[in-house]
Specification:
The complex is a heterotrimer of chains A (183), B (387) and C (530). Chain A has one helix and nine strands. Chain A is α+β, with helices and mostly antiparallel strands. The termini of chain A are far apart. The relative contact order of chain A is 0.22. The C terminus of chain A is likely disordered. In chain B, the strands form three sheets. Chain B has a five-stranded mixed β-sheet, with no helix packed on it. In chain B, a hairpin with a 2-residue loop joins strand 1 and strand 2. Chain C has 15 helices and two strands. A two-stranded antiparallel sheet of chain C has the order 1-2. Chain C starts with a helix and ends in a 32-residue tail after the last strand. The chains are: A alpha+beta (183), B alpha+beta (387), C mainly alpha (530). Chains in contact: A-B, A-C, B-C. The interface between A and B is medium-sized, with 28 and 29 residues.
C-alpha cells in the first residue's frame, strides 16, 4: 500500500479511537452511577428495593443517625422525626421526615440522600422513600413523609453506626411533565 | 507602591536574614506537629519520607555534581563506551520499589486510623457557605446549638482605606490576621469529635492543619472526619477549595475547652441564643424610623453586601449592580424575597443568617441610596412575616 | 524505478522551494518547518501573556493585604494563567518541536497529513482569541481555576463560561489533530531501516505523548460539554438536585488531567535524552529501558487520577489503591533519571547552554518528583492538598521541567532552524539567571505550603509573608530574565554567526545530516538507515 493509503488508514483508525474516547467519557457517567450504587462509594443509596422474604433479624444494634439540610434559600422546616434510631439488621423500620411549604406558591422539592461512611450505603435498603420521587407541596402545605428501610443482614461487622443525610432541593423551575426519579 | 519601595523592602528582608537569627526563628519551614495523636503520626510519616527523599536527592545530585566535575572534557577527554547494563537497571528498579513498599506500610496504617470515624463522643455538622462556615452540634451538652462563624478581621486591615490623597493604607495587623472569626467552634478535650462536612452551595474544604484534617464540603453529600484533642487551646485553619472571591476569607477557628468548660460554654450559649431570639423578636415587633433603618442598613451593606455588589452598589465581576437595578427599584416583595431566600445564580439566602432587623434595614438602604429613590421602608416585622 | 523517481522528485523539490511570500505563506503553508516555527512563536507569545498574569498574581501576593486587585479578578488571573500556560505555552511549544524535528529525525519529507497540520495550528490563535476576550465580557472571565470544578463552574459561573468552553473545544480539536498527525507520521513514514527501536528517544516520547493526547483530549471535551449542558440544557451531571454528583466532575476531569501532565513532560524527557548524550559524547544509557519506562509511565498515568481527590470523601479502599498506583509511577521515572546520570557518568562533558538547561532539568525535576512522592502518600496529602506545597511541586516539574526542556531544545536546535549560532555568553546568562530566580520563586512555596497556606487566595496571614515576598521577588526576576531569551532569539536570527551543519560535536541523528539552516524540503528521497 502506498504511503498515502497507509496514512489514510491510520488516520481513520485514530479518528475512531478519538471518537471512541468521547463515547467512553460519556459512558463514564452511567458507569459511575452504577459503580456507586453497587458499592455505595459516594454515599448514594440505591433505588427502591422490595423487602426480602424470610430475613433473619439480627441481635446486634446499629446506630443510624439522621441529618437534614436545605439547599439554597429553602426554609421548609425540613426535619426528621427522630434524630437517631437503634436498628437491627434484617428488620424493617419506618420513620418520617417533616416538611412545610412556608411560601405562598406551590413548590416541587427533591430530597437527595447521602450516607457517611459512603461504603455502607450499599447496605441500607429503602422499600419506600420520599426521596424516590419529587414531592409537590401546595402553598402552606405541610406533611410528614415516610421512609421505610432495613439494613442488610450482610452489614459489615466492624461498623456500629452510620449517618444518613437528606438534602432538600427546590426543583420547581426544572420540573418536567414526568415525575423524576431520584435515588 | 513605587519600584524603589519594593526594592528597599526586598533588600531589607534579605539583609535581615543574614544579619539576624531572629528572622529564622520566626519562620516555620516545616510542617507543624499539630496537637492530636493523628497529626503527630502524620508529621512523623512526613519527616520519614522527607529524609529518605533528601538522601535520594543527595545521592543523585552528588553523582551529577561529581560527574560534572570529574568527567568534564578537560579532565576526561575520552568518554567511556558503555551504554547499557541489565544488572544495574534491575538494581535501580528494585531498590526504589522496595523503598516505596517501606513507605506504603506505615502510610496504610495511618490512613486506616484517620478513616476510622466510628464511636464518636460528639458529632458536629460543619456546613460551608460562600463565604463562612456554619456549625451545628448534633448531640452532647451542646445539642441543638447552631451558629455561623465568619471572618472577624476588620476590612480596613485587608481591603485598606483609600485616603484623601487617593493612596490606599491599611490598618495595623496582628498575628491572627485573616485567621480570626466572630464565633469559633468549641469542642471538648479528650473526646472523639466527629465532623460531618457538607456545603450549601459550591465545594469548600474544611482544613485544620493542627488536627491533620482536610475534608471537602460537597453540596448534597456528607463527608466525615474526626479529631481527639488532648489539651485545651485555640487552633486555626482555612478553607482549602476555591469557592469564589471569598475563598481566602473564610477561616476556621476551633476553641478546645476542658469538658467542664465546654458544658459551661454550652449552657451559656443556650441562654445567649434564647436572649438574642427574644431581642430580635422585640426589635422586629417595633416600628423603626427611616433614619434608624438607613443608618443600620448602611452598616450592614458595608460589612456584608458591598463585598459582592460593590461599595457604591455598582456591582463587581459577575455580581450585579444594585444601583438602578430592577430588583432594588421594582416591587418590594421581590427584593425581600431574593434577599431572604437567595437566588438561582448564587445570591445567598440571608434569612436566619442576618437578623430580621438587619435585612429590613439593608433593603431600605438599598432602595433609597445612590440613584435609587423608591421612598420604600421595610420593617423588621415585614421580614419576620416573610414565608 | 528508483533513480528516475529520485531525480524527478529532486527536480520537483527545487521547483517547490519557490515559497509563497508574505502573509499567504504563513496562512496556507503545509510545510512542517513553517508550521513548527508558527507553533513556537505562538507558544512564546502565550508564555509572556501567561507570565504577565503571573506577575499580577505575584505583585498582589508580594505583601499581605489587597493592594492591587480585587479577589475576583485575582481568581480570574490564576485561572487564565493556568489555562494559558498549560494549553497555550507548554503544549504548543512541544508540538512546535515535534513538527520541526520528527520528520527530520526519522528521515521523512514532511508530516503525514500536511494540510491537517496547517489547520491544527491555525485553530490555536482562534481558540485563544476567544479565551482572552472573556475577561472583558460582562461578568468577567473564568475565575474557577484552570481545573474548573463544578458547581463553581456550572451554577455559579459568569456568562463568559460558554466562550471558555468553546475555546477549550477548539483547542482540543487542534491537539487531537496534531497528535494524530504525529502518530501517523511516526508509524508510516520512517526511513527504511529505521525500526521502532532505532528511533531517537525524542521521537519515542512524542509517539507515546501523541497516544495519550488522542486518548484523553476527548475526555476533556466531554467534561467541558457536560458543563455546557448542565448550564444551558437542563442536564444534571454535576448537580445533586437532579441526581448528579459534583465529585463526578473531578473524576472525569482528572481522568484527562493526570495523563495531561505527562503529555506536558514526556516530550521534555525526550529533549533531555537527546541533549545529554550529545554533550557527554556518550550514547544514551539504557535506550530500551528508557523506551519501556516511557511506556510504563504513560500506562500508569491512566490509573492514578484519584490522587487529586484524596480529600473528597473517598472510601479507604480507593485511597489505598490510588496511593499505591501513584507511588508506583516513581519507579519508571526514577529509572529515567538514573539513566541520564549514567549517561553523563564517565562521559566527556562540555557545558554549552543546552547542556546547562538539560542538566538542571534533571536536578530540579527530581525535586519536583520527590515532592510528588510525598504527596502520593494519602494521609500526608490531607496536609498538602490545595496548599502551596502542591503549587511548588507542579511549578518545579513544569518550569525547570517542561519549560527548561523547551529552552534546552531551542538553544540546541536553533542552529538547524536558522543557520545561525546563538551567543553562548548570552545563553549562559539567561540560564544562570533563570536558574537562580526559578528556585527563589518556587522553593519558598514548599515552606508556605507546609505552613498551611492554601492555594488560590489573594491575601494571606502574616506567618506566610516572608515566603511570599521571596517568591514574588524571584518571580519578577524570572519574568525579566525571559526578555533576555527573546533578545537572544532576535539577535541570533538577525546577526548570529553562521552555524555549521553539525555545530555539536557529539550530536547524532538524521537531523544533522542536512544543512544548516535545513532546506525548505528535506529528505524528499528517504535516507537509508542501518
Amino acid at each position: 500500500m502506498s504511503t498515502q493509503g497507509k496514512n489514510k488508514k491510520t488516520l481513520g483508525r485514530l479518528l475512531l479511537f478519538a471518537v471512541g474516547m468521547v463515547g467512553f467519557s460519556f459512558a463514564l457517567v452511567p458507569l459511575y452511577n452504577v459503580f456507586c450504587s453497587v458499592t455505595g462509594l459516594n454515599g448514594k443509596t440505591g433505588g427502591k428495593v422490595n423487602p426480602v422474604a424470610g430475613m433473619k433479624v439480627q441481635q446486634r444494634k446499629i446506630r443510624l443517625e439522621f441529618l437534614t439540610m436545605e439547599q439554597g434559600g429553602l426554609k421548609d422546616d425540613f426535619r426528621s422525626k427522630h434524630s437517631s434510631m437503634e436498628v437491627h439488621p434484617g428488620k424493617i423500620y419506618l420513620t418520617h421526615f417533616h416538611v412545610k411549604n412556608k411560601t405562598d406558591k406551590d413548590v416541587v422539592l427533591q430530597a437527595i440522600p447521602s450516607i457517611a461512611p459512603g461504603e455502607l450505603a450499599a447496605y441500607l435498603h429503602k422499600t419506600e422513600c420520599f426521596c424516590f420521587t419529587q414531592q409537590k407541596l401546595k402553598a402552606g402545605e405541610e406533611k410528614w413523609m415516610p421512609v421505610r428501610f432495613f439494613l442488610d443482614t450482610d452489614f459489615p461487622q466492624d461498623y456500629k453506626e452510620l449517618t444518613l443525610q437528606y438534602t432538600l432541593f427546590d426543583v420547581t423551575s426544572s420540573v418536567t411533565k414526568n415525575t423524576g426519579t431520584g435515588n | 507602591m513605587a519600584l524603589g519601595k519594593y526594592l528597599k523592602l526586598a533588600l531589607m528582608t534579605l539583609l535581615s536574614i543574614f544579619v539576624s537569627q531572629n528572622a529564622f526563628a520566626a519562620l516555620n519551614f516545616n510542617l507543624r506537629k499539630g496537637v492530636t495523636d493523628v497529626s503527630h503520626e502524620v508529621y512523623h510519616l512526613h519527616m520519614t519520607i522527607f529524609w529518605v527523599s533528601v538522601i535520594i536527592a543527595v545521592i543523585v545530585f552528588g553523582a551529577i555534581f561529581y560527574s560534572v566535575f570529574a568527567h568534564r572534557r578537560s579532565k576526561h577527554p575520552v568518554p567511556a563506551k558503555f551504554h547499557h547494563s541489565t544488572t544495574v537497571e534491575i538494581i535501580w528498579t528494585t531498590i526504589p520499589f522496595l523503598i516505596l513498599i517501606a513507605f506504603a506500610l506505615p502510610a496504610t496504617r495511618t490512613l486506616i486510623q484517620i478513616e476510622d470515624n466510628s464511636k464518636a463522643d460528639v458529632n458536629v455538622l460543619v456546613t460551608g457557605y460562600r463565604w463562612y462556615w456554619q456549625y451545628k452540634y448534633m448531640d452532647g451538652p451542646a445539642k441543638g446549638i447552631s451558629f455561623y462563624s465568619k471572618l472577624s478581621t476588620p476590612k480596613d486591615q485587608y481591603e485598606g482605606v483609600i485616603g484623601k490623597d487617593g493612596k490606599k493604607t491599611f490598618a495595623p495587623r496582628d498575628k491572627n490576621y485573616l485567621l480570626e472569626v466572630d464565633h469559633p467552634l468549641v469542642i471538648p478535650t479528650g473526646k472523639k469529635v466527629r465532623f460531618l462536612v457538607t456545603s450549601k452551595d459550591v465545594i469548600h474544604s474544611w482544613f485544620m492543619p493542627d488536627f491533620a484534617i482536610k475534608q471537602d464540603a460537597v453540596p448534597g453529600f456528607i463527608n466525615e472526619a474526626w479529631a481527639k484533642v488532648p489539651k485545651p487551646g485555640i487552633y486555626r485553619g482555612q478553607c482549602a477549595e476555591l469557592c469564589g472571591k471569598g475563598h481566602g476569607f473564610m477561616p476556621i477557628v476551633v476553641d478546645v475547652k476542658s469538658p467542664a468548660d465546654f458544658e459551661q460554654w454550652a449552657s451559656d450559649q443556650k441562654q445567649q441564643i434564647a436572649k438574642a431570639k427574644a431581642a430580635a423578636e422585640a426589635a422586629a415587633a417595633q416600628s423603626w424610623s427611616k433614619e434608624k433603618l438607613m443608618a443600620l442598613g448602611k452598616k450592614v451593606f458595608a460589612k456584608t453586601c458591598s463585598t459582592c455588589h460593590g461599595p457604591q452598589g455598582k456591582g463587581m465581576g459577575p455580581f450585579p449592580a444594585l444601583d438602578g437595578s430592577k430588583i432594588a427599584t421594582g416591587p418590594v416583595a421581590n427584593h425581600i424575597h431574593i434577599v431572604t431566600h437567595g437566588g438561582k445564580k448564587g445570591m445567598p439566602a440571608w434569612k436566619g443568617v442576618l437578623s430580621d432587623a438587619d435585612i429590613a434595614a439593608v433593603i431600605t438602604f438599598e432602595r433609597n441610596s445612590w440613584s435609587n429613590k423608591t421612598g420604600d421602608i421595610v420593617q423588621p416585622a415585614d421580614i419576620a412575616n416573610t414565608k | 524505478m528508483g533513480t528516475i523517481t529520485d531525480t524527478h522528485t529532486e527536480a520537483h523539490a527545487d521547483h517547490h522551494d519557490h515559497k509563497a511570500k508574505g502573509i499567504t505563506r504563513w496562512l496556507f503553508t503545509t510545510n512542517h518547518k513553517d508550521i513548527g516555527t508558527m507553533y513556537l512563536v505562538f507558544s512564546l507569545i502565550m508564555f509572556f501573556i501567561g507570565g504577565a498574569m503571573a506577575m499580577v498574581i505575584r505583585a498582589e501576593l508580594f505583601e499581605p493585604g489587597l493592594q492591587i486587585v480585587d479577589p475576583h479578578f485575582f481568581n480570574e488571573m490564576t485561572t487564565m494563567h493556568g489555562l494559558i500556560m498549560v494549553f497555550g505555552a507548554v503544549m504548543p511549544s512541544m508540538v512546535g518541536f515535534a513538527n520541526w524535528m520528527i520528520p527530520l529525525m526519522i528521515g521523512a519529507p514532511d508530516m503525514a497529513l500536511p494540510r491537517m497540520n496547517n489547520w491544527s495550528f491555525w485553530l490555536l490563535p482562534v481558540a485563544f482569541t476567544i479565551m482572552m476576550i472573556t475577561p472583558f465580557m460582562d461578568g468577567g472571565g473564568p475565575a474557577f481555576g484552570w481545573t474548573f470544578y463544578a458547581p463553581l463552574s456550572t451554577t455559579f459561573a459568569p456568562k463568559s463560561t460558554e466562550y471558555f468552553i468553546f475555546a477549550v473545544h477548539i483547542m482540543g480539536i487542534s491537539s487531537i489533530m496534531g497528535a494524530i498527525n504525529v502518530i501517523v507520521t511516526i508509524m508510516n513514514m520512517r526511513a527504511p531501516g529505521m525500526t521502532y527501536m532505532k528511533m531517537p528517544l525524542f521521537v519515542w516520547t512524542w509517539f507515546v505523548t501523541a497516544y495519550l493526547l488522542v486518548a484523553v483530549m476527548p475526555v476533556l471535551a466531554s467534561a467541558v460539554t457536560m458543563v455546557l449542558t448542565d448550564r444551558n440544557f437542563g442536564t444534571s451531571f454535576f448537580d445533586a438536585a437532579g441526581g448528579g454528583d459534583p465529585v463526578m466532575f473531578q473524576h472525569i476531569f482528572w481522568f484527562f488531567g493526570h495523563p495531561e501532565v505527562y503529555i506536558m513532560i514526556l516530550p521534555a524527557f525526550g529533549v533531555v535524552s537527546t541533549i545529554i548524550p550529545t554533550f557527554a559524547r556518550k550514547k544514551l544509557f539504557g535506550y530500551s529501558s528508557m523506551v519501556y519506562a516511557t511506556g510504563s509511565i504513560a500506562f500508569l498515568s491512566f490509573l492514578v487520577w484519584m490522587h487529586h481527590m484524596f480529600t473528597t470523601g473517598m472510601p479507604i479502599a480507593a485511597e489505598l489503591f490510588f496511593m499505591y498506583a501513584t507511588m508506583l509511577i516513581a519507579v519508571p521515572t526514577g529509572v529515567k533519571i538514573f539513566n541520564w546520570v549514567a549517561t553523563i557518568w564517565q562521559g566527556s562533558l562540555t557545558f554549552e547552554t543546552p547542556m546547562l538547561f538539560a542538566l538542571s532539568f534533571v536536578i530540579l525535576f527530581t525535586i519536583g518528583g520527590l515532592s510528588g512522592v510525598m504527596m502520593s502518600i494519602a494521609p500526608l496529602d490531607s496536609q498538602y492538598h490545595d496548599t502551596y506545597f502542591i503549587v511548588a511541586h507542579f511549578h518545579y516539574v513544569l518550569f525547570p521541567g517542561a519549560i527548561f526542556g523547551g529552552f534546552a531544545a531551542t538553544y540546541y536546535w536553533i542552529p538547524k532552524w536558522t543557520g545561525k549560532m546563538y551567543n553562548e555568553t548570552l545563553g549562559k546568562i539567561h540560564f544562570w539567571l533563570s536558574m537562580i530566580f526559578v528556585n527563589l520563586t518556587f522553593f519558598p512555596m514548599h515552606f508556605s505550603g507546609l505552613a498551611g497556606m492554601p492555594r488560590r487566595i489573594p491575601d494571606y496571614s502574616l506567618q506566610f509573608a516572608d515566603f511570599n515576598m521571596w517568591s514574588s521577588i524571584g518571580a519578577f526576576g524570572l519574568g525579566l530574565t525571559q526578555l533576555l531569551f527573546v533578545y537572544m532569539l532576535i539577535s541570533t536570527v538577525r546577526h548570529g554567526k553562521t552555524a555549521p551543519q553539525k555545530p555539536w560535536e557529539g550530536a547524532e541523528g538524521l537531523e544533522w545530516t542536512v544543512p544548516s539552516p535545513a532546506p525548505y524540503h528535506t529528505f524528499t528521497t528517504p535516507p537509508h538507515v542501518d
